[in-house]
Amino acid sequence: MTAEQNLGRAKIHLPDLAIELPSNIMWSGSYSQQYVNPQNLEVAEQELEMFMDLYNRILANCRNKCIPPKYHEPDLSKGEMVCIDRCVAKYMSVQKLLGKKMEENAENLTNIGSTGGGLPSTL
Amino acid sequence: MDFQRYNQAEQAQIAQMIEHKQMKDFLRLYSNLVQRCFNDCVNDFTTKSVTSKEEACVNKCADKFLKHSERVGARFGELSQQMTPPGSPQ
After folding, report:
1. ipTM over cut 0.90
2. Cα gap A41→A95, rounded to integer Å
3. How big is chain A by its Cα radius of gyration, in Å?
């Protein structure tokens, strides 16, 4: 009798728990039990830094090239707007172009290093 | 920059990191703005207070810079979406 009563009580408890916990965490019960890989964080941080650096460079360079220092009005003129659009597109294209070029030349550089060229060996 | 390959706990930490970096970047942007507008507009040192001409110039400079920043951000966003190959998981 008591065993059945205990079982009965257990049945009442378990469904409540099942509703509270999300299915992928199961019995751990805590959000922080998910493993945080520090390497992933570093990779994400580096990617983010690169992204933000690129954005800031484009901002500075296109401002220097497209917006003259004489301020007659607070809005961008049509010419400036078109210039900015083209500037951003060109900057990204140049970056892609040079990225490919660097990849090609990276092989050459490593070859030169292995055959003893470059820095003199007496250093 | 896709975040689907990170689990939830990592995503939370990354979101916090992004917020922190964005705040730092905003402060840098602000000091750049002040420097640029000061260099371009403020050249009259016969008086200590900012003249109305300089103030107007500085306001226009700031407006222009902010609009420029907005436009570059929009174009940059469009172009970097194009740069990620269409076959990548989203």
Report:
1. no
2. 26
3. 31
Other residues' Cβ atoms within 10 Å of the Cβ of residue A36: 16
Instruction: Give pTM, 2 decimals.
Output: 0.70
Beta-carbon-side half-sphere exposure of residue B39 (alpha carbons within 13 Å) = 8
Q: What is the DSSP letter of A76?
A: P
CB contact under 8 A, B72 and A88: yes
Contact A85 B63 (CB under 8 A): no
Within 8 A of B72 by CB-CB distance, chain A residues are 55, 58-59, 62, 84, 88
pLDDT digits (tens, 9 = 90+) for B44-64: 899 999 999 999 999 999 999
The total of other beta-carbon atoms located within 10 Å of residue B80's CB is 14
Quote the tokens at residue A83. 């210039």
Distance in angstroms (rounded) separating the CA atoms of residues B90 and B88: 6
Cβ contact (<8 Å) for B9 and A76? no
CA B15 remoteness from chain centre: 18
User: Which of 3.40.720.10, 1.10.287.810, 3.40.50.1100, 3.20.20.140 would CATH assign to domain A38-113?
Assistant: 1.10.287.810
Give the residue extent of every domain in chain A.
38-113
B9, B28, B76 member nearest A34 (Cβ): B9
